[in-house]
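Hey L., structure's done. Input below.
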Amino acid sequence: MKSVRRSIAGLVTVALAVTGASVLSPAGTPVSQAAGVGAGVRAAEPGIVTVSLNSAATQDNAGLANITVADAEGTPATGTVKTTVTDSADVVLTTDTLPLVDGTVEVTLLPGYAGNYTLTVFYPGNGDITEAEGTLVYTIEKATSTASILVTRVPTPLVAGSATVFISPSVGSPTGNVLVQVKTLAGAVLATTSAPLDADDSATVALSRRQPGTYALVATYAGDANVNPTTSSTTFTVARVAAVWSIGWNRKPTPWRTGSLRIRVTGGGVGAATGVITVRLKNSNGTVLRTTRIRLNEAGLATVWLPRLRVGRYAVVASYPGDSKVRAGTTVVRFASVRR
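Output:
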């Protein structure tokens, strides 16, 4: 009977050990622990992925990011990480698998168009550290740009002119239009036009005819997806036009009657001249017989009265000092006083 009881007790001990229960031997000591969990085995620690920017990527130069994987106590991870770069529309641009060395690895950020990008790093884990993920959002900046204006043909009151605007970006080639405004020096806008940039990063615009004076020329580039806006300004001067003389006799003076002369001063494309003309009557020896100052009317016209003159040859010299639109000028009318 004793041998039978010992056998039953042994079977019970084995069954309890398989279910993970702690049992005591006849001496009162633990016999076994849960199946598959041995003494000294610990759970994996949570992984931490840190992604930092070393150098920014630009439109023409690559950048660098640093990846570190460790547990909460700083123990470096082993294995590899998978990197993925996506753009702002979540389009995958690059993927790569990189080995960790002492828990770190550098990843190259490729150059690209201006915009925001996301670097996602996935660590699949190992026996000691669980899987983990980290992200870095970085920006490729727009290119800077400068503008310059060249007035290739200055307009006149009769003929239109032109100007060329050059846009110089720090990288790439700008696209879009350039807006050009002609302004007074006080800032009032007189004309606005635009033109598209060509393959040489320049745009040419026409400048409409202008009255004499000095004007400001302002060029504005609004930028595009990859190039920042810029503006530039300059001035140009439309020169005064030459005086145009129109002269006609009402009647010539003689020894028996006075005479009168019509003088009109205008400027090509600017209309009538304004101001006062000086008229000198001279004899054949060049002696000034009379000097008269006459104001031009709104049509630029003045009437010169001449006294009775003895027989001989004479000259009327008319001088105009100029105004804001018409340059100074002089004309000479030669005539003879005769008996009849």
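The radius of gyration is 49 Å. Residues 1-39 have pLDDT under 50 and may be disordered.

-- N.
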